[in-house]
C-alpha cells in the first residue's frame, strides 16, 4: 500500500489510467490521449449521409397527401379502456372504436356509417368478395372523411363538401345520393324549391289568420278552395325535394340549409335547366294568382293589407309577365 502522493501517482499510471495532454490530469478541456483527434485524419471519414443537412429540403420531394394520411393513420395513440389501463393503438383503430361508441349511443349518422362500413368489411373476406363500384368507394370515403372531420373539429366540413349524414349509400343498388345540392344547377333547383316553399307557407299562414277572422266568415268556401290549391303546390315541391335529395318530413319542416342569401327568381333563371325553369314559372303563376285572389277578398271585407304586401297592380303585372312566358 503506497503511503506518499508520488507513489500513488506511479501506481495509477501503472494500472493504465489515461492521462491528458502533456501527461496531465484528465478533465474538462483535457481529453485522454486515446480520444484526441490525430492531426491529418478526419473525424468522420465516411462523410455526411445523403438526404441530411441543409440541402435535404431541395433534394427530397415533399410527401403526397395520400402518404401523409396513411402515415397519420398508422401512428400510435394512447387509448384508455374501461379498466383504466392505457394501451397504444393505431389512429385508424381508435377512430373506428370512437365511431362504434357513437353508434351504440344512438347517433344516427354514426349508425349508418358504421353499418355500411361493416357490410363492406364482411363482404371483403376471403370467402366472400364484394366488388365495390367506384361511386360506392367515393361515397364511403366522403362519408368517413366527413365523420372524422366532424369528430376532430366539432364542426361540419366546409362547403361544398357534404356532411356525414348528407351522403346516402345503397349497397344493394350501388346508388350514392348526396342529400344536399352539388353543382350550379343543383344549387339553383335547391334555392328555387325552398323559395317557392317559403312563399307558399306565407300564404298558408295568412289564410289561417283569415279563417280565424270573423270578417271573412262569408268567404270560408273560397278560402278553403285557396288553401287546397296552395297545399298542392307545397306537395309538389316536397315531392321534388324528396325525390332529388331524399329529404325526410322532419328535414322538410326544418329550416333549410345551403341556401345562398339574397337569391331572387331573376338570379336563378339562368342557372336552372329548361324543365325546372318551366316548373317554377308555373308555380309562380299559381302563387301570384292566389295572392291576387287574397287581395280581392281583403278589399271586399275591408281588411287592411300588411304594410310590406305588394300593391294589387304590382301583383297583376308580375302575374301577366309569368303567364306570357308559359305561352
Q: Radius of gyration over alpha carbons?
A: 38 Å
- By secondary-structure content and strand pairing, the structural class works out as mainly alpha
Give the end-to-end Cα distance, rounded to a whole number of Å.
Answer: 126 Å
Unreliable spans are: 1-5, 7-17, 125-130
Strand order of the largest sheet: 1-2
Q: Give the helix proportion (percent range).
A: 55-70%
SSE ordering: HHHEEHHHEEHHHHHH
> Total number of helical segments?
12
How much beta, percentage-wise? 5-15%
The total strand number stands at 4
How would you sum up the major sheet? 2 strands, antiparallel
Compute the average pLDDT. Answer: 76
Tertiary shape: elongated
Question: Mind explaining what this structure looks like?
Answer:
There is one protein chain. The chain has 327 residues and is mainly alpha-helical. Helices cover 55% and strands 6% of the residues. It is built from 12 helices and 4 strands. The strands form 2 sheets. Strands 1-2 form a two-stranded antiparallel sheet. It has a two-stranded antiparallel sheet with strand order 3-4. Strand 3 and strand 4 (175-178) form a beta hairpin. Helix 7 (184-212) runs antiparallel to helix 8 (220-245). The termini are far apart. The model is unreliable at 1-5, 7-17 and 125-130 (pLDDT under 50).
Amino acid at each position: 500500500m503506497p503511503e506518499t502522493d508520488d507513489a500513488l501517482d506511479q501506481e495509477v499510471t501503472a494500472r493504465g489510467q489515461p492521462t491528458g495532454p502533456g501527461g496531465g490530469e484528465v478533465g474538462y478541456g483535457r481529453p485522454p490521449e486515446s480520444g484526441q483527434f490525430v492531426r491529418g485524419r478526419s473525424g468522420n471519414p465516411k462523410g455526411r449521409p445523403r438526404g441530411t443537412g441543409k440541402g435535404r429540403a431541395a433534394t427530397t420531394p415533399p410527401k403526397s397527401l395520400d402518404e401523409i394520411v396513411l402515415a397519420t393513420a398508422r401512428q400510435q395513440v394512447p387509448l384508455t379502456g374501461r379498466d383504466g389501463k392505457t394501451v397504444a393503438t393505431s389512429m385508424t383503430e381508435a377512430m373506428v372504436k370512437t365511431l362504434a361508441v357513437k353508434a351504440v349511443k344512438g347517433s344516427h349518422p354514426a349508425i349508418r356509417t358504421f353499418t355500411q362500413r361493416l357490410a363492406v368489411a364482411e363482404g371483403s373476406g376471403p370467402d366472400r368478395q364484394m366488388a365495390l363500384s367506384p361511386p360506392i368507394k367515393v361515397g364511403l370515403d366522403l362519408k368517413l372523411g366527413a365523420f372524422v372531420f366532424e369528430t376532430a373539429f366539432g364542426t361540419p366540413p366546409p362547403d361544398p363538401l357534404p356532411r356525414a349524414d348528407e351522403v346516402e349509400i345503397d349497397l344493394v343498388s350501388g346508388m350514392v345520393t348526396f342529400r344536399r345540392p352539388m353543382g350550379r344547377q343543383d344549387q339553383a333547383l335547391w334555392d328555387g324549391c325552398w323559395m317557392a316553399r317559403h312563399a307558399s307557407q306565407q300564404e298558408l299562414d295568412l289564410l289561417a289568420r283569415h279563417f280565424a277572422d270573423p270578417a271573412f266568415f262569408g268567404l270560408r268556401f273560397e278560402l278553403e278552395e285557396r288553401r287546397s290549391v296552395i297545399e298542392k303546390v307545397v306537395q309538389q315541391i316536397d315531392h321534388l325535394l324528396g325525390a332529388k335529395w331524399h329529404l325526410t318530413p322532419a328535414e322538410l319542416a326544418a329550416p333549410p340549409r345551403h341556401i345562398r342569401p339574397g337569391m331572387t327568381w331573376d338570379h336563378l333563371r339562368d342557372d336552372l335547366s329548361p324543365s325546372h325553369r318551366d316548373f317554377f314559372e308555373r308555380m309562380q303563376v299559381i302563387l301570384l294568382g292566389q295572392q291576387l285572389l287574397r287581395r280581392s277578398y281583403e278589399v271586399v271585407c275591408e281588411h287592411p293589407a300588411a304594410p310590406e304586401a305588394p300593391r294589387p297592380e304590382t301583383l297583376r303585372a308580375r302575374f301577366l309577365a309569368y303567364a306570357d312566358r308559359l305561352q
